[in-house]
Design goal:
The chain has 322 residues and is α/β, with parallel strands linked by helices. It has a single domain (15-188, 200-248, 265-320), classed as Alpha/Beta hydrolase fold, catalytic domain (Rossmann fold, 3-Layer(aba) Sandwich). The chain has twelve helices and eight strands. It is globular, with a radius of gyration of 19 Å.
Length: 322
């Protein structure tokens, strides 16, 4: 691994002054978990994801392993509320795992609380490294969003949510050229008069994007062990960094909102990534909000989406049904 200290980088960027060991530490989220050891945190995360997915498949109406393309692994799982209608809000989730682990088959965390309130949930698979390249993953995720819009054209809004590496892939959808796909997804959301029981409808526009504990500037990743599988060049990293491009991009729909979320116990670099991406969105023409969620780490922030009373679950539901 290359030592990135003193290689002639501008010293004003903090990560470029770190030792290789410290940079590695900053980009290893399990090392920042307070409640458990690193290995146990990863095991617990996987276990909760598997249990939530098993429960979702056993108890919700679903279409599983639906192909959105011809490539191996280009499939989605779609979970529906009890009432049968295609005029539903659709919530798409892109899992994390540093673009090299994780699966739709253990990522249905939020299916139960969201479908219970009338939201269809789509868990998206994409071709992880080392087989898949990052450029190809971005293309796959773009096609998965276009697929949902084409299959359910009467949807009441498409909401994109990604966690960690998945938040990066969701953020890349802010830059997507939808004309190539022959469809413009309804990413602005539905302006209905209904709301969560007992909650007055909010006057604010809905969010289209929930970016949870993400990485938006990929350059630091090039100098960590995560890049052994990814094999990113500096050019690959820059081309796929929404942080570097989003200020110049035009929102497809000016009412589309982006919520950038980070956990209190995410590493300082993950905090910096989220905060700087939020600031960059604000400098562009995007409507963005930032939340640091109290008392959660990189994994709990998504594990807790299994609970309907969780803060982020409630933010998602209030956003969709305002």
């Amino acid at each position: 691994m290359m030592d990135v200290s003193g290689v002639g980088f501008p010293s004003k960027v903090p990560w470029k002054k770190m030792s290789a060991e410290e940079l590695e530490n900053q980009y290893c989220p399990s090392r920042w978990v307070v409640r458990l050891g690193a290995e146990e945190a990863l095991r617990t995360y996987s276990q909760i994801g598997i249990e939530a997915t098993t429960r979702a498949r056993a108890t919700r109406k679903s279409l599983l392993h639906v192909p959105y393309g011809d490539g191996e692994g280009e499939k989605v799982d779609i979970y529906f509320p009890d009432e049968s209608s295609e005029a539903l809000p659709f919530f798409l989730f892109f899992h994390g795992g540093y673009w090299q682990s994780g699966s739709k088959d253990e990522s249905a965390f939020m299916v139960h609380p969201l479908t219970a309130q009338g939201v269809a949930v789509v868990i998206v698979a994409y071709g992880i490294a080392p087989k898949g390249t990052l450029d190809h993953m971005v293309d796959q995720v773009t096609r998965s969003v276009a697929f949902v819009q084409k299959r359910y054209p009467s949807n009441k809004g498409i909401y994109l949510c990604g966690h960690s590496a998945g938040a990066h892939l969701a953020a890349m959808m802010l830059l997507a050229d939808w004309t190539k796909h022959g469809v413009t997804p309804n990413l602005r959301g539905f302006h209905g008069s209904y709301s969560l029981a007992g909650q007055p409808s909010s006057p604010h526009e809905p969010w289209g994007f929930f970016l949870v504990s993400g990485v938006f500037d990929l350059e630091p990743i090039v100098y960590t062990s995560q890049n052994v599988a990814l094999q990113l060049t500096l050019e690959d990293a820059q081309r796929n960094s929404p942080q570097l491009k989003v200020a110049q991009a035009q929102p497809v729909d000016p009412t589309c909102r982006v919520l950038v979320v980070v956990g209190q116990f995410d590493s300082p670099e993950f905090h910096r990534q989220s905060w700087e991406f939020y600031q960059t969105l604000c400098q562009g023409e995007w409507k963005a909000s930032f939340e640091e969620l109290h008392d959660v780490d990189h994994f709990e922030i998504v594990e807790n989406l299994t609970q309907k009373d969780n803060v982020l679950t409630q933010i998602i539901l209030k956003t969709i049904f305002q």
